[in-house]
């Protein structure tokens, strides 16, 4: 099983690409969301391969990264475990806003949307603009060239329904 998790690890740039990539500001909260994205990504890849994801195993594997100590652990756990516990519910919210079947999304976009919708629909302490922005930044950092635009469009549409009172008050 650990081999499956290792091969399902989120793609990241190698050292050569890091030098040409602008340095990102990684606050403990941003780091927590990035690790949550990696964990959700791994669980999606495992599900698509027909395996049952194990959140404890995935968390243990993520925590082996020395930088994991610098993430806001409570936020990571809240998002990661919340998304895994409510994946079906969150996908039911996302699906009507998509222009394709959810299983045709890249795992990165899918994971970013799950995290964004989790924060929009479940964690109402996160302002809707922050929830959208953070999910878009995750898609920019880890996703394909224009995946962040798709994530932004879907989450913006869903925010109109999920946070209409907050949007009207802004």
Question: Any descriptors?
Answer:
mainly alpha; 170 residues; globular; disordered N terminus; 10 helices; single chain
How would you describe the overall organization of this protein?
The chain is built from 10 helices and no strands. The protein has 170 residues and is mainly alpha-helical. The model is unreliable at 1-8 and 11-22 (pLDDT under 50). It has helices spanning 2-7, 15-20, 28-48, 55-63, 73-85, 87-94, 107-121, 128-142, 147-162, 164-169. 68% of the residues lie in helices and 0% in strands. Helix 6 crosses helix 7 (107-121) and helix 7 packs parallel to helix 9.
Task: Outline the fold blueprint.
Elements: H1 2-7, H2 15-20, H3 28-48, H4 55-63, H5 73-85, H6 87-94, H7 107-121, H8 128-142, H9 147-162, H10 164-169
Helix pairs in contact: 3-4, 3-5, 3-7, 5-7, 6-7, 7-8, 7-9, 8-9
Terminal Cα span: 47 Å
> What is the number of helical segments per DSSP (H or I, 4+ residues)?
10
Low-confidence stretches: 1-8, 11-22
Helix fraction bin: 55-70%
Order of helices and strands: HHHHHHHHHH
Mean pLDDT over the residues: 88
Largest beta-sheet details: none
- What form results from the Cα inertia axes? globular
Record field, number of beta strands: 0
How large a portion of the residues is in β-strands, by DSSP E?
under 5%
Q: Pairing-aware structural class of the strands and helices?
A: mainly alpha
* Rg measurement, Å: 15 Å
């Amino acid at each position: 099983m650990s081999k499956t998790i290792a091969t399902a690890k989120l793609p990241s740039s190698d050292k050569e690409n890091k030098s040409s990539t602008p340095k990102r500001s990684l606050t403990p909260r941003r780091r927590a969301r990035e690790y949550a994205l990696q964990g959700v990504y791994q669980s999606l890849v495992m599900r698509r391969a027909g395996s049952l994801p194990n959140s404890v195993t995935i968390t243990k594997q993520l925590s082996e990264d020395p930088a994991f100590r610098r993430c806001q652990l409570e936020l990571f756990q809240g998002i990661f475990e919340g998304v895994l516990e409510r994946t079906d519910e969150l996908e039911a919210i996302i699906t009507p806003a998509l222009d394709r079947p959810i299983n045709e999304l890249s795992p990165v976009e899918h994971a970013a949307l799950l995290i964004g919708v989790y924060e929009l629909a479940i964690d109402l302490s996160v302002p809707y603009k922050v929830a959208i922005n953070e999910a878009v930044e995750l898609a920019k950092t880890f996703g394909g060239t224009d995946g962040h635009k798709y994530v932004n469009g879907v989450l913006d549409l869903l925010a109109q329904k999920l946070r209409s009172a907050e949007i009207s008050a802004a």
